[in-house]
């Protein structure tokens, strides 16, 4: 039995839902937990349907049949919830066993009722980083789409979000996608100060319209990171940002990309599309997103 969690602990959170990414989510969360010296907690959230939602299904049925059918539907929903609870507990036990075998001390698991976003907001002050798959169980076969709640979660939870889209490979090089925005400054500070990046070469990459302006922007960043003891490479790219960055990933063996998330306003994103969403869809390497 794992230790009872203490409120003052700052957790690495693994979000488990039974999708194909759950094992990789566990493995990346274990790696992060070790690197950050942050205790590991796996969460499975159960979003329950209400009896009122079941009652709505009977609106077009004759009055005599409604009560009997509503009772049956309610019983079926209760049974479904029980099975979901049992399934979730089994998944969490498997995750705990996997974390134990990876050498992690006292991995903790918890099952919560409500949406995942609600669950994370409730414990936001206790979170160091959230790890989750790019698609949940309901959408895992749709490579052309993201998980139904991913964007809302990234927008709602103001903690680093580590998005898993592949089997675990221990990162050997990291790319910081940098444009000088407030989110990127936050990401820069993390790369500069976090033990996660102490021994990883850092590629700071900027996609610009003018190469000389881009080089001027990266010059100060390079000095700042080198003064913090980081091994730094800088590169200015031209072209469509998500395509250029993904190509750079492939060409330079980048295992992890750090970037700000949703730094533009919603109106601009509706017109031009979200750079964050394009990166999530186009890359096959994990992303560490910061708001």
Keyphrases for this structure?
10 helices; 2 domains; 10 strands; 291 residues; alpha/beta; Rossmann fold
Summarize the structure.
This protein has 291 residues and is α/β, with parallel strands linked by helices. The protein has helices spanning 22-36, 51-56, 63-101, 116-122, 150-156, 182-193, 211-227, 241-252, 266-272, 275-282, and strands at residues 11-15, 40-46, 108-113, 127-133, 161-164, 174-177, 202-207, 232-237, 256-260, 287-290.
Please provide a written account of the structure:
By secondary structure, this protein is α/β, with parallel strands linked by helices. It folds into two domains: 11-48 and 84-164, Rossmann fold, CATH 3.40.50; 174-290, Rossmann fold, CATH 3.40.50. The chain contains ten helices and ten strands. Strands 3-2-1-4-5-10-9-6-7-8 form a ten-stranded mixed β-sheet, with helices on both faces. Helix 5 (150-156) links the parallel strand 4 (127-133) and strand 5. The two termini are 35 Å apart. Residues 50-55 and 265-273 have low confidence and may be disordered.
């Amino acid at each position: 039995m794992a230790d009872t969690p203490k409120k003052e602990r700052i957790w690495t959170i693994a979000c488990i839902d039974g999708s194909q990414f759950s094992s990789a989510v566990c493995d990346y969360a274990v790696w992060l937990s070790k690197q950050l010296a942050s205790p590991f907690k796996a969460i499975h959230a159960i979003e329950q349907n209400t009896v009122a939602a079941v009652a709505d299904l009977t609106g077009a049925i004759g009055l005599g049949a409604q009560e009997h059918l509503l009772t049956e539907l309610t019983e079926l929903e209760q049974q479904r919830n029980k099975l979901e609870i049992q399934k979730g507990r089994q998944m969490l036990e498997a995750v705990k066993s996997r974390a134990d075998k990876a050498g992690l001390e006292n991995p903790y698991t918890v099952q919560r009722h409500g949406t995942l976003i609600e669950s994370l907001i409730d414990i936001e002050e206790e979170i160091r980083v959230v790890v989750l798959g790019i698609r949940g169980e309901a959408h895992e076969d749709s490579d052309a789409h993201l998980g139904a709640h991913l964007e809302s979660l990234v927008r709602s939870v103001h903690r680093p979000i580590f998005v898993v889209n592949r089997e675990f490979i221990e990162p050997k090089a990291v790319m910081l996608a940098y444009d000088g925005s407030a989110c990127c400054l936050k990401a820069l500070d993390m790369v500069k100060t976090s033990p996660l990046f102490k021994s990883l070469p850092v590629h700071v990459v900027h996609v610009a319209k003018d190469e000389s302006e881009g080089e001027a922007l990266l010059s100060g960043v390079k000095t700042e990171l080198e003064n913090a003891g980081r091994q730094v490479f800088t590169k200015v790219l031209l072209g469509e940002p998500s395509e250029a960055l993904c190509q750079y990933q492939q060409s330079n063996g980048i295992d992890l990309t750090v970037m700000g998330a949703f730094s533009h306003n919603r109106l601009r994103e509706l017109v031009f599309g979200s750079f964050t969403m394009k990166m999530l869809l186009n890359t096959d390497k994990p992303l560490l997103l910061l708001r």
